[in-house]
Amino acid sequence: MRDFHEALAALDAQSLLRRRRVVSGPQGATLEVDGQQLLAFASNDYLGLASHPKLAEAAIDAIRRYGVGGASSHLISGHHETHERLEHALASFVGLPRALYFSTGYMANTGIIPALAGRGDAVFSDELNHACIIDGARLSRAALHVYPHGDLAVLDQLLAASASREKLIVSDAVFSMDGDLAPIAGLVELAERHDARLLLDDAHGFGVLGPDGQGTLAHLGVRSDRIVYMGTLGKAAGVAGAFVAGSADIIEWLVQRARTYVFTTASPPLLAATISASLDVIRDEAWRRDRLRSHARALRSGLSDVPWASKPSETAIQPLVVGDNAAVMALMEGLWRRGFWVPGIRPPTVPEGTARLRISLSAQHTPEQVTALVAALRAVSAEMQRKRAIA
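-> structure tokens emitted (391 positions)
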């Protein structure tokens, strides 16, 4: 029998023990964390909508009209008119025939993938895909082929060698730890050449990229009947949940066969109503995306000569790769002492030897706050270099 005290101590010795922080008050650029006021670059609230007054008003109105609970699964009595309106709005927003709303992004992928691929089929997954994609692929019981990150040549070979009748390529559209974009046009071309389907998880692109925030497909101008498009609603949209969009037949199949949709209580109608309000704000307040792009440019310019590698990213995710687990935690703690919360990300979330700060920008940040973060990072860098020199 495993000794969990010993196992936890082993994690701690490797600088892999994680700690929950307690946040008080609303989400925003500054947060009260464990009783301390911090300037936070730790959130996926990329557009700053989690505390937007229009969303709060929509939620309050929905509570008064519909109450707080979903009460039943969608296929019994839980599919509310607010869910139906939201799904029509989401399909229209991304320009696809039909959409289906899930309670969470994790539930979406662990439901979609097993519904689209099963025993005797094959799933082809980028090695840096999110955990929910990995788990969905395992749950499908299809043959799983993992290809090197963004490597279309290897994926082409794997697809060509597969004799499976159903082939499903799965990829993040924007990768959650690097902030880079998948080679989507190339993925579509391979799907067409090898008669495969392509599932794209645009958790970090929806709302941030593309005209009106329509996402990575619109940003790149890519369209294909082979694409099944998934987006989350708890990041840039500021609320909760996820959706999948595609052809009417595929969405109806998921209604019938996605177990994480069929066998769970529907999300509260108040969330669906609030998300509908969020779509209007995303569309109407383009300045939020403009500000994100400006922040990213300023950050990359200010950190161009620090000793750690930044990765090219045109999104709100700006990683600073440190490498060593203990070093990234020391960097995080140095920033914390100066009043900044930037999370250190370690394995298994990222590959061994690539521990990093995951700097998350938000439209709620001011230019002055981004400049202050740059100054703090440079100061901590100099302090760490001095300590190494003395040692």
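The two ends are 42 Å apart (CA to CA).
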